[in-house]
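Give me structure tokens for this 86-residue protein.
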Amino acid sequence: MLTIVDLIWFAAEMAVYAAVVYWGWTRSTWPRRIATIVGGLAVFAGIWGAFCAPQATYPLHGTAKIALQAVWFLGGAVVAVTAARR
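Here you go.
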């Protein structure tokens, strides 16, 4: 059963993906935009899906999962700030 916490986590995850897309969109030329958007989403989704998702291939637990989630969300914040500065 989904809880409000699950919905908050999902919304935060989607916000990171939106930040990556926005960051990619701020690149200079169309080929760079497409490559950055696709590549950025692949990296972020791959890391999340492999280690942090509920059905993760290599699920982490405890401190390792918290540390990876912190770095992942910090990465999302960095790309959002970088995109906003262009």
